[in-house]
Design brief:
It contains twelve helices and ten strands. It is of the alpha+beta class. A four-stranded mixed sheet has the order 1-4-5-8, with helices on one face. A four-stranded antiparallel sheet has the order 2-3-7-6, covered by helices on one side. A two-stranded antiparallel ribbon has the order 9-10. Helix 3 packs antiparallel against helix 4, helix 3 packs across helix 6 and helix 7 packs antiparallel against helix 8. The longest helix is centred in the middle third of the chain and has 37 residues. The radius of gyration is 21 Å and the shape is globular.
Amino acid sequence: MWFFTEEERQLQKTCRDFARAELAPVAEKLDTQEKFNLKAFKGMGELGVLGITADPEYGGAGLGATAATIVMEEFGKADPGSTLSYLAHSILCVNNIDKNASAAQKEKYLPKLISGEHIGCMGMSEPGYGSDAVGMQTKAVKHGEHYLINGAKMWITNGNLADVTYLYTRTGPGKKDLTTFIVDKSAPGFSVSKEIHKMGMRTSPTAELAFENCQVPLSARVGEEGDSVVHMMKNLEIERITIAGISLGIAQACVDQCVKYAGERKQFGKNLAHFQMIQKMIAEMATETETMRRLLYTVCYEYDHGNRSNQLASMVKLQLPKMATKIALDAIQLHGGYGYSREFPVERLMRDNKLMEIGAGTNEVMIMIIAKNLLKDALKDS
């Protein structure tokens, strides 16, 4: 993009080179095996991107949404699953701790999370509460010098590997009586109750977490009781912006693969590139991808310069995954039978992107948010 700083352009090149060397060569194999790329994750720590938005005092890069989205796009081209795990670690866990935790908590957790020594996750969704996150029922009750936590968290990216969980709980009867804790995997009463096998994003581990009288010290609480709704909504904004970068990476990877395939595959004695229908498909896919890029990075730029809008975050989270799914399906169609097979990456890219229309807020929830903002005056009268 025209407004990228020199630091952001260098970050883009560094992440692109890393993705080609460490993610792309094993993405198909690890997708088949449903294995996490731990080697690449450790390499991300060495690269300095696991704390992309965190304070440099604790080893972070101190950058903004634009830089974080650049990482998502470049990694997402190669392996969206590993990129989703990167997002869960760097945005859902590290960024939350950096923005909301005490100095002592940051000192305890951030250096190891940012170096890659530890893996982080966030616990928000529950078996009965996904889109209605503030309806969560996992409870934390103060008991002397500790809190006892009871409940379960579902669809937790990195959950079965995480050393640290940034956990949302209920501490009172009110809808907004939500409180956050940082829970170590060694906490008594904490366990991984189930690993979840998915249609896509198979290189990103997902689990259900169980808390049965899970004992955590008072020092594990982030802020005061009841603070968490504000923290949650602020982090959802940057999450929805940056996660859209994965869909952008998927769309660009589909375009790149189609251009390559059209130049190599022959039908009726000619490369596919000679056929007008193929030209039309590729031209439209590329134009749609560039439209995605311009929208997303414009919102990133505004976010980094103080114009923080839940409405715009919801719009990019709605539109980019929808467009990327359409582009991935077009890429499969262009490849014909090969697109439906696993010989080419487009079927994996389509499977991976479908999660983008569900995670971090479904398309339907994004539509509700956007519509309520647009129609708020009319809705007051009804």
